[in-house]
Amino acid sequence: MVQKLIYELNRDPAVQAAFTADREAVIGRYRLTGEEAEAIRADDIGKLYILGVNGQILMHFAAWRGLAWDDYIQAMKDGLAEHGPVRGGLYAAVDGGRGGAV
């Protein structure tokens, strides 16, 4: 569900406006784990990457939240250092989840 939320934020100006106005209300529409919700609240790109959010979706979310490309890549690397290997999704299968995608 976290990827669905991010996808909709990336594509729908109405969802973006609602998120900007009341982040908690938008988060509440999705069945997120506590970790996912906290990462969304904090715009924690590194944590979202570790949780398995696809990089193609995540990069657009990061840009919308104001991160430059180099900062986006660094956020993923920092996520690996801080939170450990990628836990889910496609990147968990790359390089044993150690971050072979970045």
Write the layout of secondary structure elements.
Blueprint: H1 2-11, H2 13-21, H3 23-27, H4 34-41, H5 45-50, H6 55-64, H7 69-83
Helix pairs in contact: 1-2, 1-6
Describe the protein's architecture and organization:
This protein is an all-alpha fold and 102 residues long. Helices cover 62% and strands 0% of the residues. It has seven helices and no strands. The protein has helices at 2-11, 13-21, 23-27, 34-41, 45-50, 55-64, 69-83. Helix 1 crosses helix 6 (55-64). The mean pLDDT is 91.
**Major sheet characteristics:** none
C-alpha-based Rg, rounded = 13 Å
Write the element-wise H/E pattern from the N-terminal end onward: HHHHHHH
Question: Hey, roughly how much beta strand do the residues contain?
Answer: under 5%
The helix tally amounts to 7
Shape designation: globular
SS-based structural class?
Answer: mainly alpha
Helix percentage range: 55-70%
Low-confidence region ranges: none
- Total strand segments: 0
Mean pLDDT: 91
**Distance linking N and C termini:** 23 Å
Give a summary of the structure in a few sentences.
This protein has helices at residues 2-11, 13-21, 23-27, 34-41, 45-50, 55-64, 69-83. With 102 residues, it is mostly helical.
Keywords:
mainly alpha, 102 residues, 62% helix, single chain, globular
